[in-house]
Design a protein that fits this description.
By secondary structure, this protein is of the alpha/beta class. The protein has ten helices and 15 strands. The strands form five sheets. The chain has a five-stranded mixed β-sheet with strand order 11-10-12-9-13, sandwiched between helices. A three-stranded parallel β-sheet has the order 5-1-6, with helices on one face. Helix 5 links the parallel strand 10 and strand 11. Helix 2 packs across helix 8. The radius of gyration is 24 Å and the shape is globular. It starts with a helix and ends with a helix. InterPro entries: Iontro_rcpt_C, Solute-binding_3/MltF_N. GO terms for molecular function: ligand-gated monoatomic ion channel activity. It comes from Anoxybacillus gonensis. This is Basic amino acid ABC transporter substrate-binding protein.
């Protein structure tokens, strides 16, 4: 009877230990959940659809950063305005979509360290009388709604100016330029240059105006107070320092990135 009692006790202790181990494994799996990343895949060459897949500079950089951080993730294309709602409502963990870091957005969202320096460009048809940002006055100008491109045009034309035509994305804005609905489109330089390079028959030209359009920086966006930010920042720094960032940059833009300028912003 005594031996049976001891065996029963040992069996109980073993079962308790096994249950404890199971709880620990379950807890780890829950903690290391797959990260949900949202984007607006209509912003080539940063993110766009190709044969049913989301591709682009941001997509390759995201992959490298998440690998460095040791995180699993799923990238979802949900559109520009919805991605801000998803991050604010914490139904997504992170967003990447050529999102400019600015003081206004920082009141609602957290951002990673900067990963890309950009400026705005003006797209017009060949032969247009528009040669500078000042020439946009009195003209119908297309912008992507809710972007810093819209803000840049509002500073020139006025916030409530009815000549500012707002579109769901830059692709639609450029289509309207081709169809004569707007006389110019203001968007980010990499996007403008990519369109002109890939569509020579469209007879569209793009130019900068440093006097009116200052440099800005893109970052990964998180819900306010996200614990993910620090891990992503550390991984992004390593990807920039170990040359992976430069490889990705050259693949998509064909030139060397200004690493020093990026690191000065960290």
């Amino acid at each position: 009877m005594v031996k049976k009692g001891m065996v029963a006790t040992l069996v109980f202790m073993l079962m308790f230990a096994l249950v404890g181990c199971g709880s620990s494994t379950e807890k780890t799996a829950t903690t290391e959940k797959k990260i949900t990343v949202v984007t607006d895949a209509a912003f080539a060459p940063f993110e766009y659809m190709d044969k049913g897949e989301i591709v682009g500079f941001d997509v390759d950089l995201l992959k490298a950063v998440m690998k460095e951080a040791g995180l699993e993730y799923e990238l979802k294309n949900i559109g520009w305005d919805p991605l801000f709602a998803a991050i604010q409502g914490k139904t997504a963990d992170m967003a990447v979509s050529g999102i400019t870091i600015n003081d206004d957005r920082k009141q609602t969202y957290d951002f990673s360290i900067p990963y890309f320096e950009s400026t705005h460009m003006i797209l017009v048809k060949e032969g247009s009388s528009i040669k500078s940002a000042k020439d946009l006055q009195g003209k119908v100008v297309g912008v992507q709604n809710g972007t810093t491109g819209q803000e840049a045009v509002e500073k020139i034309l006025g916030k409530e100016n009815k000549n500012i035509k707002k579109f769901e994305n830059t692709v639609v804005a450029i289509m309207d330029l081709l169809n004569g609905g707007v006389e110019a489109v203001v968007t980010d330089n990499a996007v403008a240059n990519e369109y002109v390079k890939n569509n020579p028959d469209a007879k569209i030209v793009a130019f900068e105006d440093p006097e009116h359009f200052e440099s800005e920086f893109y970052g990964f966006m998180f819900p306010k107070g996200s614990e993910l930010k620090q891990k992503v920042d550390e991984a992004l720094k390593k990807v920039i320092e170990n040359g992976t960032y430069t490889e990705i940059y050259k693949k998509w833009f064909g030139t060397e990135p200004n690493i020093e300028s990026l690191q000065q912003q960290q």
